[in-house]
């Protein structure tokens, strides 16, 4: 035994001597020296993360936790009150295991996991494991996936492009089985574009000036043209061959960002040209040479901004070019807001994050939208999903608890994450197509009473997207806390004042109170007919 100890001691001395020869200084008093000789900040010692290559910073850490703390299996210490609170605070989830005796019985609208945790009953058999023991996805009837999705053996639905992409996305890893070269070369379903990494996205998302592929390949080889409101713009397109355009059909189309039908702009066959709808007498083909079929738009309007496609059909050959027209002085207004569900922070995988935004009459925000919101002053210290599958958070005021005071302000990034990982989400809500208002009532209401009160007024209880759009885009201001559709209570302040958000304009969040025991006012929303 002592021989082994002496060998280890001698090895450490040799390593330290080697470091001195190479010019590596000894560690400072505020640092910890790994067994291999390198120095790390002392606060990284026994913090649950391996920082030394030899793992020596996480050895012999059992006694580091205080009496009022819980020690995760990986060594991290957390407050004891965080154990069995329904939130996964340990990276290995050990704080939420074996909690069935510590949990109260779940509400009628909840499902109790085998571990004792309560989750919304709607998450049961939705194809995504939310219980630590995956009990919410056991004994479920087999689901049928959308044509653009791939169905795992466990019933979960994932994007078809994630099949055989080298990363396991099904909980049972069946998306990476039997991945022949022929399968890898399969194309996406009709009406979809296949990213270089294999993901399938709706074709209308190609060249829409938003990154939707994780590899950003949907915005490659796309033209981007800027035009002034009321001015002219030329969208480029050329015939693929040097022959004349006799017998060749050229069709310009404007694509929409939603499920609306495509909008015909111009159709040309030989010497005959036809324009359509609001583009009549405003567009023509430039024709600078025999191959030039660029589209010239006169008197640019707000609604002209968007995605365009030039289709060239020569017999059985079809080619297409796509791009985006941006109109200066014309901005699609909207607001980015952070969101987490009643179940608490960091509880949304990518699929649920996307759905959560839709349920609040919003969409999951893009990187560009969050970037603009940050430039406009958004500062938020909790990481959230974005539409490209990345996880980020905006910091305008660098500080220690939010990524460090020494790091520059900006969009802090966790990069592309496993789609089953749990975070919050950033949503984007645009201009309201209806009326958001405070419902005057003689007394405060429970949640059920609030829902009914809006219905009695010919409206619906407002959603989180509604209150943010009304606050940001319409300057709505009211210092009264009211129920919203997700069970949260909030109030919008656009004019900061004493007792009403004195330091900043904001939508104030009260929380998710007990729906049956707590009483508040209510915000309603009446859609345009």
UniProtKB/TrEMBL annotation:
Q: Where in the cell is it found?
A: Secreted, Extracellular space, Extracellular matrix
Which cysteine pairs are joined by S-S bonds? 27-39, 34-52, 46-61, 65-77, 72-90, 84-99, 106-118, 113-131, 125-140, 145-157, 152-170, 164-179, 188-200, 195-213, 207-222, 381-402, 479-500
Q: What is this protein called?
A: Hyaluronan and proteoglycan link protein 1a
Q: Ranges for the Ig-like domain?
A: 230-326
Record's InterPro entries?
Answer: C-type_lectin-like/link_sf (IPR016186), CTDL_fold (IPR016187), Hyaluronan_bind_Proteoglycan (IPR050691), Ig-like_dom (IPR007110), Ig-like_dom_sf (IPR036179), Ig-like_fold (IPR013783), Ig_sub (IPR003599), Ig_V-set (IPR013106)
Q: Which Pfam families does this entry report, sorted A to Z?
A: Ldl_recept_a, V-set, Xlink
Task: State the family it belongs to.
Answer: Belongs to the HAPLN family. Belongs to the LDLR family.
UniProt keyword annotation of Signal present: yes
Q: Which UniProt keywords apply?
A: Disulfide bond, Extracellular matrix, Glycoprotein, Hyaluronic acid, Immunoglobulin domain, Repeat, Secreted, Signal
| Record has ATP-binding as a keyword | no
Q: What is its main location?
A: secreted
Domain (Link): residue spans on this chain: 335-429, 434-526
